[in-house]
Design goal:
The protein is mainly alpha-helical. It is 82% helix and 0% strand.
């Protein structure tokens, strides 16, 4: 018995040695699978974090642009007008974007035709900015933002007529709904809106629409932030010349006026940097979809800070405009995804 036991006992290590290679191989496969799972999990976690950061940047950008408009209107009560605000805003944005490009090691200047394209885009954006801030003298911020946010519809209509973008039935319905919403909001106002403000709002919407269409062409050949820097430089020159023609910059008459002035400049710079950083992270389609929150933020802040009040019918018109914008953008995003899927297949 002992001999048999001893023989069996002596054989066991041999069995273990024989099985060891198989067990090691099995263990190695398991470790590889675990490593792959960990890598995939880490990649998914990084993607979620990156997506969360992008969403935060977009929301901050929309909120920043809204604050810029609100603070600009508040600044008027202390002396500065559109020219002074836009010159200081352009100067701050130009410096901030220049520093960003230098940190990235990117040449900030466009060359050749792209340079002149950047100049034209900067002039269009200057017209938009001046019309937008000038309209604040005539109509409330809440109504202005509704008129101005006709620009996504204008872009859709112009690109459809130009043959570069086909407007769908959903997009056409959204276009009609948006115009109807603006008509309701303006038509049911307790006081008749000053049509100078409405006209300037439409000029601002047309200016930014042409800027967007032109930017899509120029940015095919150049970095979007480089194009933005060159537009900002152009705006700085335009408003610098305008300030010289006026004779001086109008600065706040009291210390209290520096708070809204600083707020509007800072809000614009932060909004711009967040906007273009988010575009690089998630692409322009998703950013434009989320930026449609700006009218909501602006109307809300106008009520809180400027004590503007919309009537119930005006709220209905505003809701119709915002819903139309979201519907149109979402429809375009789905169409673009289907086209990409068809191309990849």
């Amino acid at each position: 018995m002992r001999a048999d036991y001893g023989t069996a006992a002596a054989a066991r290590p041999v069995c273990r040695r024989a099985l060891a290679p198989g067990r090691l191989a099995f263990g190695r496969l398991t470790n590889e699978d675990a490593h792959l799972n960990e890598t995939a999990t880490a990649a998914a976690r990084r993607a979620r974090i990156s997506g969360g950061i992008a969403v935060a940047l977009i929301v901050l950008s929309a909120l920043g642009y809204s604050c810029h408009t609100i603070f600009a209107r508040a600044t008027y009560d202390y002396g500065p007008g559109p020219t002074s605000i836009l010159f200081l805003r352009s100067a701050a944005a130009t410096v901030a974007i220049f520093v960003l490009l230098k940190l990235r090691g990117v040449d900030p200047w466009l060359r050749g035709r792209a340079f002149w394209g950047g100049v034209v885009l900067g002039v269009l954006l200057s017209i938009q900015a001046m019309a937008m801030l000038s309209a604040l003298y005539f109509i409330p911020v809440s109504l202005l933002i509704l008129v101005f946010y006709m620009f996504p519809m204008i872009v859709a209509a112009v690109t459809h007529l130009a043959g570069t973008h086909r407007i769908t039935a959903v997009g056409l319905g959204a276009l009609v709904a948006a115009f109807a919403g603006v008509g309701i909001a303006l038509g049911v106002s307790p006081e008749a809106p000053d049509w100078r403000g409405v006209g300037l709002g439409l000029v601002a919407a047309l200016g930014v629409s042409l800027n967007i269409i032109g930017s899509a062409i120029v940015m095919k050949r150049a970095d979007s932030i480089v194009v933005t820097f060159n537009m900002s430089v152009t705006m700085l020159v335009v408003f610098g010349v305008a300030a010289l023609v006026r004779g001086s910059l109008a600065l706040p008459a009291s210390a209290a006026g520096w708070l809204p002035l600083s707020g509007t400049v800072l809000a614009y710079v932060v909004a711009s940097l967040c906007f273009y950083t988010s575009v690089r992270r998630v692409g322009p389609s998703r950013v434009s979809m989320a930026m449609n929150m700006e009218p909501i933020f602006t109307i809300s802040l106008a009520g809180l800070i400027l004590a503007e009040r919309l009537t119930l019918p005006q709220f209905a018109g505003a809701a119709l405009v915002v819903a139309a914008i979201f519907t149109s953008t979402y429809s375009d995003l789905r169409s673009a995804r289907r086209a990409e899927a068809a191309t990849s297949d």
